[in-house]
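re: ur question from yesterday

yeah so i grabbed the chain u mentioned. its 681 aa long if i counted rite. heres the sequnce exactly as i have it in my notes:
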Amino acid sequence: MSEKIINTVLLTIMCILVFAISTERRFYQFNEWKKNKSLYFIDHITAVTTLDAYHWLRYAEVETGIKKKPKYDLRGYPDLKKFPEKIPFLSWLIAKTCNFFDNEGYNKVYVGGIKFINITASLFVIPLIIYLFLSGGGYTGILGALLGSFSWAYYVRSCVGRIDTDSFVLVAPILLGLFMLLATILKNKYLRYFFSILAGVSFLFLSKAHDALNAGYFIYLLLFIFALFINKLEKKEIFILTILYILFSNPLHLITGFHSLIGFLKSKYVLNFNPEGDIQGSVKIVFPSIIHTITETQRRPFNEIIQMVFGIKSLALLGIAGSIVYFILNFRKSIFLIPVFCIGLMAFITSNRFAMFLAPFVGLGIGYLFHLLIKYIFKITNPDLLKYSGIIEIIFAFVFFFSIKNATAYNYVPRPSIPPDITKSFIDLKHKLPKNSAIFTWWDFGYALMDIGDFYTYHDGGLHGGIRTYFVGKALTMNSQKKFYNLINYLDDNGFKGIKNIVKNNSTPENLLNQVLNYKGKLEPDDHIYILYTKDMIGKYGAISFFGNWDFNRKKSNEDFYQQISCNQLKGNFLLCGPNLKIDIANGVGFLSNNRRFLLKRVLFINNGYVITDNEFPEHLKGWNLELVMVNRNVFGIYLINDRLFFSNFNQQYILGRYDKKYFKEVYNKFPSARVFEVKK
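ran it thru and got these structure tokens back, copy pasting raw so excuse formatting
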């Protein structure tokens, strides 16, 4: 049997094996979920591990007929748009494939979507292994695929329940690069034509699955032409191959691709150096920037990025160095992987999200250095052994990976993005509240409320920031429930479009707030608007107050937080909180170590969302507020907060149950999971 046939067989087996390992672990996670159904399966709803999943699932449910197609989409209330004629491509894929999977008695779109992503998230390993072999890296791609698949940076974004386009971010550029490589290096010109066409078709398909690939259209086109030149193809051949690629990738990308690239470079993931805010209108009213509150867009320290890529810093750095060696020694053939590597390196200077692109190159680099070492040793000792080097590389890849798998996310089992009690509340509300109800709350659960409850929402994970999120944050953090009511009425009559018009008319921040927060109006009988609070908003209050406490003149914000303290005993009048803190709740004094102390203005005991004890200390002009929050007389949390947070609408309504009955009516209380107030008509 020839060496070529042996390598082909080995390469095929390795692709199948690594793909099977990657996919099996994701299905293993799902099977682990089924061992704890109360956490992951609520009624017909299956847990997901990204809040964006509900966006794709809702459209897929409409496509399959599980949900009736509404006249209006549920996003962006009250500025409604008609339901889109063309649903997102990922939703369409889920809708068309969900029947191929066993739904195990649950919503077929949810389970089908989860299992579909389990497969697509692992697809990148196949073109990566083949690419490395064809470009001179031997079986280096095996280790790159394994470490790439199970890196924390990628695995947590592509594991079970992560129904999102992230499952295509690696396979899209690597597969495109592989087809371009084949169109460049194959000797048969008709095969080159075929793979040039295939590269164009794959771009067309994959750019729909993940539209960020559109930003790379010109980069890959130029790389393709450059690679054809440096591989010394005839000019006529270069022209034909280029034209074939352009034709089958849609020539319109010559126009739209440039705009996509500019848009990508300007996005919050790349040029996120404006923590101050978003400029709106000709007078440059600067609203707070959403970048400040989104974890994945933020820059992280070097060591933290390395940890995300691979848990052993020295090996991670060795792998990156090894990848650079691979690119240098195999430049003509490795050129199509360079964009992926460069995007990965961007994680060190901009959004940490890009770390997942770097993950495969750690394994690739380590594998390639071993590949060079084996070749060198055999060459100087016994050249006849070179034919066995591939087998040794394969063995090394698997032995190395499984010996260090604990430094990866190999055994990780994710928890649901929304706790089961909150999911259950959304299901309850769907049955309790009138149809066509609108929910006013923080943006995180916007997609879920639309999908699970069929509610209109004011903002969501794709429609947030700027004016919308500022005014939602303002409503929750200001100390006037009347102005909260006025804001709801203004939006109901004028929408956010009305606010934008005020800004465009050269308004000042003071005039803007006066028009919106002092608006006189009332809801119509068929308007059903509700304020929703959930327990996660306690931890998110810092982000909420970043928007709500925004100072337009200083272009800065003063954030407030629920400062949680851990106390284990109430002894007499003293609340004992470890060896360094005790609080005299009778006299409103906290005692710290080293004879330091602080004053309390109020001490409140709250049970199930209602105040049962309220001790005030008016003699303490300055001081903290202590809230001991209980659920069924069991401590849920103990918080120290300042006055501004204490008097906020969020704290007064949600934590203390003190709502103005003139403007609001409590309609649902499953404290702390969820609490809902109706805006009175």
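noticed a couple things. The two ends are 83 Å apart (CA to CA). also The first strand starts at residue 41 and ends at 42.
anyway ttyl
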